[in-house]
Design a protein that fits this description.
The chain is an alpha/beta fold. It is 32% helix and 21% strand. The chain contains ten helices and 14 strands. The strands form two sheets. Strands 5-4-1-8-9-10-11-12-13-14 form a ten-stranded mixed β-sheet, with helices on both faces. It has a four-stranded mixed β-sheet with strand order 3-2-6-7. The longest helix is centred in the C-terminal third of the chain and has 16 residues, at 279-294. It is globular.
């Protein structure tokens, strides 16, 4: 592992409770659960857990009381954290996991953060970002948080020297890209649903037509995004950056849970970057980590021994993309944001 710290912000953390069903979920019936699990979660926490499992230098920033169960759980994992105290308990998210890998998510909204708490989170984030290579802004925003808060954070983090990666959805994602190129992150990790939200294209078209997906990704570069890691589930991922565009297919796996797979993909990319990998190998690592995560139960994160990079097939798609520049393409109207996606963060 080469030098470099990763700092993650999880503004809306959670305790992720996975309930293992014995068979297909039948509404109105009684299900006898298999042994279930609870993990500290939230997208930024998941990224940090995967980085820490690989021996990476990582700090996770989040709002939580000192006696909150998520703080105790993170301490048990040995994960360095900077917690900003709040009175409300961290939310619980539930995953109903069926034996065939189908997962149904039930996410609580989380507690609202007041202006003083957001200011403290911002200050703590900047304190740790000053010595970081990457800052990751990840997941949903708590109720009442301005939807453009991530855009404000990206702008304010410029003077730290750290690169910024963002993984979010719906209104915060649209606000981020609508804020202009000065708020565009160095790395954006959408999935196909989120890319459709950003571009107004249909998700079905983006998943069926690679040229349509490439054209949609190009619009993100036009809006100032430096690098795009587009995760496509069982269809792998696509990485577009100044060096070129590559696609990758995952190895065949038995899917046990897709919860956190995208977070682990982002962690795999960042770990490879810390090790000095070129773009194709960063993509290879991302897809290998995502596949390894999906083969594990609940929201477990893989260890390096469970990640098989050699089984990932990477293909060059095109040459270098143009440098990021201000775009004249308007963002989709706010009304285009769905009330809820398949994976509400």
């Amino acid at each position: 592992m080469s030098g470099g710290r990763i700092v993650t912000l999880t503004a809306n953390p959670s305790l992720d409770r996975t309930l293992a069903l014995p068979g297909r979920l039948e509404r109105g019936s009684v299900a006898r659960l298999a042994p279930s699990s609870t993990e500290p979660g939230g997208k930024g926490v998941n990224v940090a857990r995967a980085v820490a499992a690989a021996g990476g230098d990582v700090v996770t920033v989040l709002p939580a009381a000192d006696d909150d169960p998520i703080v105790a759980a993170l301490h048990r994992l040995g994960l360095p954290l900077a917690a900003v105290p709040v009175e409300a308990p961290v939310r619980t998210n539930y995953t109903l996991a069926e034996p065939d890998g189908t997962t149904t998510k039930l996410n609580e909204p989380g507690a609202a953060l007041d202006d003083a708490t957001r200011a403290r989170l911002t200050a703590v984030l900047h304190e740790h970002a000053a010595s970081a290579r990457w800052v990751v802004l990840s997941g949903s925003l708590p109720p009442g948080t301005p939807v453009d808060w991530y855009a404000d954070l990206v702008r304010s983090l410029r003077d730290t020297g750290a690169k910024v990666a963002v993984d979010t959805s719906e209104a915060p994602l649209l606000a981020l890209l609508a804020a202009g190129p000065d708020a565009a992150p160095d790395l954006l990790k959408p999935n196909s649903e989120e890319l459709a939200q950003l571009t107004g294209a249909s998700e079905a078209e983006l998943t069926a037509d690679r040229d349509a997906a490439l054209a949609a990704v190009a619009t993100l570069h036009e809006r100032g995004v430096g690098e795009v890691l587009l995760t496509l589930g069982a269809d792998g991922a696509l990485l577009s950056c100044a060096d070129g565009v590559w696609s990758a297919l995952p190895p065949p796996i038995a899917v046990r849970s897709t919860v956190g797979a995208g977070d682990c993909s982002l962690a795999g990319h960042l770990l490879a970057d810390l090790a000095g990998a070129e773009a194709p190998d960063r993509l290879r690592s991302a897809v290998a980590y995502g596949a390894a995560s999906a083969s594990l139960p609940g929201s477990a994160v893989p260890t390096p021994a469970q990640v098989d990079r050699t089984a990932v097939e990477v293909t060059a798609v095109s040459g270098p993309v143009p440098a990021a520049a201000p775009s004249t393409t308007p963002a989709p109207p706010r009304s285009a944001v769905p009330a809820a996606g398949r994976d509400v963060r």
